[in-house]
Structure to design on (229 residues):
């Protein structure tokens, strides 16, 4: 069993929809949670970072962590075609960046 | 505003050939990384360098070597390429930790697509 599981998609939604992207994990020691966005044929870029449990909001994006269920989510409100990308979750028990474990990514397509 | 620059962007090799992927960053970061990305496997760390003069193995180091040439440059070498090394390779750099604590934000290059026949 992988430490981090992520549905590969693709997830296809109409413009304006609310999107929910999710990851589950098995290591209860994980406390740092990140979401990276990767456009086609580009490198990933950091989108959201959350420490421990709770919610964090940034514009149309909300990151949510439920440590009791070992489950993290990224919500996108009012989705736009420009949100079409692959979304990678990443997490770590330590602050060392080399200890980050990435999910396989979920491909999102937002159609006009 | 270059960030992280990787060369080459595409390469086709025959089994047994060698090659070096080059990476340079202009953000004055101490830490640099090489990842590979494969379908269904996600990003996996090959090697990293926490500072100039140091390198350490990541999750999948077999078949690779690295050199931290100076603070800006970090190269990845395949001595004898195998079809299993067909992948997209990403170089990244980061601050040591986030200003708010936690793993430093990774800044990635655009990737090098390698095919080994």
């Amino acid at each position: 069993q992988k430490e981090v599981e992520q549905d590969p998609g693709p997830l296809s939604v109409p413009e304006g929809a609310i999107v929910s992207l999710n990851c589950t994990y098995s290591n209860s020691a994980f406390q740092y949670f990140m979401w990276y966005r990767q456009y086609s044929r580009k490198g990933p870029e950091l989108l959201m970072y959350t420490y421990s449990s709770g919610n964090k909001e940034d514009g149309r994006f909300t990151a949510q962590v439920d440590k009791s269920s070992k489950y993290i989510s990224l919500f996108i409100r009012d989705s736009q075609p420009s949100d079409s990308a692959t979304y990678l979750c990443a997490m770590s028990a330590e602050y060392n960046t080399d200890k980050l474990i990435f999910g396989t990514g979920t491909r999102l397509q937002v159609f006009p | 505003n270059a960030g992280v620059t990787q060369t080459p962007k595409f390469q086709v090799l025959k089994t047994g050939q060698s090659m070096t992927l080059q990476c340079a960053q202009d953000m004055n970061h101490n830490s640099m990384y090489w990842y590979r990305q494969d379908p269904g496997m996600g990003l996996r760390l090959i090697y990293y360098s926490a500072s100039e003069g140091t390198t350490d193995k990541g999750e999948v180091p077999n078949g690779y070597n690295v050199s931290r040439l100076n603070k800006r440059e970090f190269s990845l070498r395949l001595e004898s390429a195998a079809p299993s090394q067909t992948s997209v390779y990403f170089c990244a750099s980061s601050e040591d930790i986030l200003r708010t604590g936690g793993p430093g934000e990774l800044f990635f290059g655009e990737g090098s697509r390698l095919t080994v026949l």
Q: What stands out?
A: Chain A touches chain B at residues 4, 6, 8, 32, 34, 36, 41-46, 49, 51, 88, 90, 92, 94-100, 102-105 (CB under 8 Å). DSSP finds no helices and eleven strands in chain A.
